[in-house]
Amino acid sequence: MIANILYMRCVYCQKEITTKSSEHVIQNAIGGILESEDICCPECNLAVEKFVDKDFVKIFSPITNNIDYLPKRASTESCYDGQVMCAGQFYDAKFKGRKIISVPKLQQERKCRLDKIKGVVPKQFNFNLQNDVFENGLSKIAFNFAIHSGINPEFLMDFVNVEKDGFNVTSIKFKNRVIPFCPLNIVDSKIEFRNEIQLYHNLILFSNGKELWCYVDLFNVFQYYVLLSEKFESSEKVLRIYAQKCQKIPLSEKHYVEDLHYVKPKHISALLTIFGVTYEECKAQRKEGEDDFSLIRRVINEKIRKESVVSSLSDLVNIGGMVEFVDLLKNSSDTGKINLYHNFSFYFDENDNLIENNFRQYFIDGDGQIKFYPHEMIDVMQSDSKMIREYTSLKFKLMCNYILKNSLLK
User: I want to staple 222 with a disulfide (CB 3.0 to 4.6 A). Which of 187, 218, 288, 360 is the partner?
Assistant: First the structure.
């Protein structure tokens, strides 16, 4: 059931929300820009950051420390693990920010400081996903998106464990079932295995009978289904989609700043009206010594830049349309051609636009049967978990290659 009225109580402590508090659906430390004021009170917002977000975002440190133009970058550099190569050998290493700070075994072998060793080259990074921290953070994203999409919280609370001392929240844990994704047809494989990874976040909230699921895709690498409810009731099928690029337009790009540089101070009121910004919002972001005109122009520029990140899912997953389809046909067996045609037409319309009602929810198997993706992935987990591990490893490799190619890591 979709809530018809605003749910004005904090979902965690149940207090009435009297002071608005903006909660990021996807953690802002990993570039999430979608926000909602209808989820929790200010105190519980801080509790979520403490009990869920703080450790979760550390998992993505190799990305957030090395990718430019994230919508939100951490104010301090963080540490993470990986591997380097020196003289043809791999070594475990410790990184901080964009620097290699320690290679214990190599330093022990050479009996000297790291800065005295030449030819140390970063090769890959570690992402620790096999823990409660990761699933807790993913589930929180799915939970937030459901609330933001108007789902009544009563359907979601079976998997949320909140411990309280009076109204004070002392622990928040999500116990949702988290299912990894891997492509189960040739079209999904084509979408996922490109020469270079595209960085984006994608959320798809959808219902299937009494089940409510959310597909969470972070950085186009960390892809999972989160079961939000097994008792969901609605008179209509739920489908809500959010997609954003993970990198903002650089300030230096001319089409970004447009003509704001030339706007005169007398046009301040018009600027505020056109871009839907209030003077109070601007004042809260004022830097020391900044005059009103510079402040307002900076805030509006940032809003334009932020909005440029939000994207169409169809644009992000486009695989080249009919040209790519024909190329795939040439290299397919007769049976493969039939399945390829079924899945391509199941995912894309005649104008090569993504059919969002099907994507990541359903696919067509080799027998021509429509299958529900989360249920099939549960079967794969039980029968062929190696397939999932191999897929995850390939996606990590693509991400590591992207980081090494585009960062200033040294």
Answer: 218
- Portion of the chain with pLDDT greater than 90, in percent: 56
Residues 46 and 137 in one domain: yes
* pTM, 2 dp: 0.84
Angle at Cα 174 formed by Cα 18 and Cα 35, nearest 5°? 45
Long-range contacts for 388-391 (Cβ within 8 Å, ≥24 apart)? Answer: 388/180, 388/182, 391/182, 391/183, 391/192
Report the C-alpha gap between 223 and 242 in whole angstroms: 14
- Its sign, for the CA torsion 97, 28, 53, 239, is negative
Residues in contact with 402: Cβ distance below 8 Å, sequence separation at least 6, in sequence order: 196, 197, 199
Res 178: pLDDT? 97
- Kindly state whether residue 178 falls inside one of the protein's structural domains: yes
Residue 260 has pLDDT above 60, yes or no: no
Does residue 221 have a pLDDT over 50? yes
Give 3-state DSSP helix, strand, coil % of the chain, rounded to 5.
Answer: 40, 20, 40
* 154-179 mean pLDDT: 93
Shared domain for 268 and 146, answered yes or no, is no
Same domain, 267 and 206: no
